[in-house]
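Priority: medium. Attachment 1 of 2:
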């Protein structure tokens, strides 16, 4: 699902590259319908729209990505 990513406090992993350009950024906020959402965007192109997913979907993604 997509969502409005304006006005969010974005962060990225401390493991991202020293140039800071090889990572995604994440922010927690509201999504469509005022439900909780995890917003994700490309750190190299912050002007492009990101995506918003449910906290449950984000937890599944992080669980698999960390393997």
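Attachment 2 of 2:
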């Amino acid at each position: 699902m997509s969502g409005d990513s304006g006005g969010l406090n974005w962060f990225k992993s401390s493991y991202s590259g020293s140039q800071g350009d090889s990572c995604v950024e994440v922010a927690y906020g509201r999504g469509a319908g005022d439900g909780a959402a995890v917003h994700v965007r490309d750190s190299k192109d912050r002007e492009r729209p990101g995506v918003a997913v449910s906290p449950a979907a984000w937890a599944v993604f992080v669980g698999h990505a960390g393997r």
